[in-house]
Design brief:
The chain is mostly helical. It has one domain (2-33). It is 85% helix and 0% strand. This is Hok/Gef family protein.
Length: 34
């Protein structure tokens, strides 16, 4: 169970990082157009 939790937690963490990265890129792309 612990291994499964670690796997899922790791995936969630990776997913969160990707989401933030996409948001960050979107902000960077948007800023100069202001």
């Amino acid at each position: 169970v612990l291994g499964f939790t670690l796997l899922v937690g790791d995936s969630l963490c990776e997913f969160t990082v990707k989401e933030r990265n996409i948001e960050f890129k979107a902000v960077l792309a948007y800023e100069p157009k202001k």
